[in-house]
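re: that chain from earlier
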Amino acid sequence: MAVHLSTPRSPSLEDVLAAQKTLSGVARVTAMEGSRFLSELLGAPVHLKCENLQRTGSFKVRGAYTRIAGLTVPERARGVVAASAGNHAQGVALAAALLGVPATVFMPTGAPLPKIAATRDYGAEVRMHGQVVDEALAAAREHAEETGAVFIHPFDHPDVVAGQGTIGLEILEQCPEVRTIVLGMGGGGMAAGVAVAVKALRPDVRIVGVQAEGAAAYPPSLAAGEPVALAEMSTMADGIQVGRPGEVPFRIVAELVDEVRTVSEDALSAALLLCLERAKLVVEPSGASPVAALLSEPGAFGSGPVVAVLSGGNVDPLVLERTLRHGMAAAGRYLSLRVRLADRPGALAALLTELSVAGANVLAVNHVRTDPRLGVSEVEVELQLETQGPQHCAEVTEALRAAGYRVLG
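^ sequence. v structure.
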């Protein structure tokens, strides 16, 4: 694929190896856990690279620290500035604190409160600006021009890409027999860094990037041969919600990443639920995107060992609750029904008894009495039920119909 770009130099394997030395004692060598469920699903060994257990809760500290550590003494004295809704903000804040560099981070007003609090706790000055990251990004660049602070981009810089590439070195050390690496992609910094490291040492390893369907800038960009900005985005995976690939990582991804796949919101929520229930790992939606890809098409990843990179675990508890409910619904664990009943004493109790016998757990009940579609002596009951899966949903519905109830959906 022809790519016509004028970009800064691309990092090399030597840059990634140098970053690994820089990060020694700073970034954790995160655990790699086997997944029996995913291994059985794929018919091949699957391992989870747990960057959700990294310092600050995501891989971002690797790139941020590598970039800031490479600044000159005068640059450090001027301080650094960044813009982020969460993970990069925390990575920059911690890296700057460890290196004794003043840091200012611009965050959009809609950023999750736990991420704002964590960024402040790591020592950065947080300034709220704009409704979306792009607006915070513009403010950060303006601040850099006005003050001389060094702007720390979340993915579009060779040092940042090299720092993220240290994940690839660890994967090769922890799973030497790996055949496929699957990782989430937003701007492309992690995918590019891992590709630089892995392809230099093991060119036979397949690298697959994963994007959310509602924020997939790489497929059209790769088709065009240059970064293309999306007109709009919508996804729960805010960690990979990037509207335009970075110039530096794009060149590398176009050359070295074997495939870019997209996943649905249902797949993301189902993957998050699986990580929590089966792997006992709290992972944010963007961090679960590689698992979502495995769940969506398990036969597409070959026969050799597969490593899925869980890139982050910084999820707002409220978002986690909503996402888990969505995941349970997508997995057939919730069932919504409307049932017509005779409006007489004991009718609701009899319905609930039938549901109990069928093994459904009632989460919510709502009586509707005033709908003009109802007869004078009728009432409609809206039910939210917890079930044991798609087959159980069908069994519950059939049990109600067999008992004579009119089930509407």
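Confidence is low (pLDDT under 50) at residues 1-6.
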